[in-house]
Design goal:
Low-confidence stretches: 1-5, 190-209, 214-221
GO molecular function, one term: ATP binding
Number of strands: 10
Number of domains: 2
Number of helices: 14
EC number: 2.7.-.-
Pfam family, one: Pkinase
CATH topology of the largest domain: Transferase(Phosphotransferase), domain 1
Keywords: ATP-binding, Kinase, Nucleotide-binding, Transferase
Protein name: Serine/threonine-protein kinase
CATH superfamily of the largest domain: Transferase(Phosphotransferase) domain 1
Length: about 325
């Protein structure tokens, strides 16, 4: 039994604090797990229930920004309504007097898929053994299950990438970050999302932003997975944009290389819209990728939505069949 479990179990007989703590005062032992451009993820212990949770809140400098506040609340509420084994349970949404809006989730031990792929690229023996081709196919299929469930409820994720696929230490696969999700029938921020990636300041940081797997480091990554219709700023996107992004993730998971990465974001966008990329087996012959995998991947990343899989369930079925074939 680890120390974290011992600490939590030691407090199971405690009475409920009186008065019950408000906002983030409810959580003790806070420590940072990850930090992004707009938000920070912390771990802490719920002093009332006695369980460890993950807490997501905005960075101090933008916690009063109306757009970022709305985006965080959207992520929390969409995630809370998508109750599926491959999404993370949301426990609470709150507005702390000092630290602003936040939400708490189940804390899952493990790492995101991009970190796992980086270790494979570095020929880490433990990663290579833990994530053979069959396992990587299963992980992508599990993430796609969350997308299929979301699509059935009118939600498009729009930011599917390896960093948003969490692989737990006990086999769990969780699709995270629904902050830019589109809900059918509601106004969305597609144009805002598109403009963010076309800002001039991005061009000054392309070497940092578009690092390869073999180069290591962190990357925002989103431009690498956007569908052609997202790059064009189309408002009328549907579930096939997630199918394209999932196809790019599948390609990268197999070839351990991104298919559309250019030297700049503009070049990457041009590749997404126009470049014919080689199939995974040709891109990375050193990984001995079966030829039958190529057809599934290339159909998922077809430029025209009409040429792709028309539903996530179809893509999942073919990925599952591949997983059985390569076992």
């Amino acid at each position: 039994m680890n120390n974290e479990s011992t600490i939590i179990l030691a407090g199971t007989d405690n009475d409920i604090p009186s008065p019950p703590p408000h906002g983030l005062k409810r959580y003790t032992g806070l420590h940072e797990m990850a930090r992004g451009a707009t938000a920070v993820l912390q771990a802490g212990v719920d002093s009332v229930i006695g369980r460890t949770v993950a807490i997501k809140k905005l960075l101090p400098e933008i916690r009063t920004d109306r757009y970022e506040r709305r985006r965080l609340l959207r992520e929390a509420r969409v995630t809370a309504q998508l109750q599926h084994p491959n999404t993370v349970p949301v426990y609470e949404i709150g507005d702390d007097d000092l630290q602003g809006v936040y939400f708490t989730m189940k804390r899952i031990s493990g790492e995101n898929l991009f970190e796992s792929l980086k270790r494979i690229a570095r020929k880490d023996e433990r990663a290579v053994a833990a994530f053979p081709l069959q396992r990587r196919l299963e992980i992508v299929a599990d993430a796609c299950q969350a997308l299929a469930y979301a699509h059935a409820r009118g939600v498009i994720h729009r930011d599917v990438k390896p960093e948003n696929i969490w692989v737990g230490n006990f086999g769990e696969v969780i699709l995270l970050d629904w902050g830019v999700a589109k809900v059918w029938g509601h106004a969305d921020d597609a144009q805002t999302l598109h403009r963010q990636h076309m800002q001039p300041d991005h061009e000054t940081k392309t070497e940092t932003q578009l690092q390869t797997l073999t180069g290591g480091g962190q990357r925002p990554g989103t431009p690498l997975y956007m569908s052609p219709e997202q790059v064009n700023g189309n408002r009328g996107i549907d579930e096939r944009t997630d199918i394209f992004s999932a196809g790019v993730v599948l390609y990268e998971s197999l070839a351990i290389r991104e298919p559309f990465r250019g030297k700049t974001i503009d070049e990457t966008f041009d590749n997404i819209k126009h470049a014919d990329v080689p199939p995974p087996s040709e891109k990375s012959p050193q990984y001995e990728i079966p030829k039958e995998v190529d057809a599934v991947v290339m159909k998922a990343i077809a430029k025209r939505p009409a040429d792709r899989y028309q539903s996530m369930r179809e893509l999942i079925a073919d990925i599952r069949a591949l997983a059985v074939t390569v076992s």
